[in-house]
Amino acid sequence: MKKRTPISAIMTSDVITLNHSDSLVTAEKIFKKNNIRHIPIINGSKITGMLSYTDLLRISFADAVYKDEKEIDTTLYDMFTIKQVMTKNVISVNSKTTIKEVAEMLSKKEFHALPIINNKKLVGIVTTTDLINYLIAQF
């Protein structure tokens, strides 16, 4: 394992994002369709927050058991906005940050994804799953 490998080596660069004005119904559809658990929230080109599938589970009975279900009960989702549910104080790193540094950050925090920002622009996302897959590939 190389100690100085940059996070850009394992980050997802084709990032799915949502606008802060999108609905939670749209968010859940995107989570399920793409089988992802974290979505950066943007306003224009600026990242304003992160939304996780767990955030949705906290406010609803979002049915993780029935992932194939096409109809979503939107009653509770209509009571909240993405801005109300998302994490607002987002910690980010740049693409030159090492995998080791990112792993240390995520091991000490209560979140499981970090946006990768270069020159104030979202260029990627890295998750704990990316780190685990990287570790597995080393063996």
UniProtKB/TrEMBL annotation:
Pfam families: CBS. InterPro entries: CBS_dom (IPR000644), CBS_dom_sf (IPR046342), Diverse_CBS-Domain (IPR051257). The keyword GTP-binding does not apply. It comes from the Bacteria. Gene3D superfamilies: CBS-domain. Residues 11-69, 86-139 form the CBS domain. Keywords: CBS domain. This is CBS domain-containing protein. It comes from Flavivirga aquatica. The lineage of its organism: Bacteria, Pseudomonadati, Bacteroidota, Flavobacteriia, Flavobacteriales.
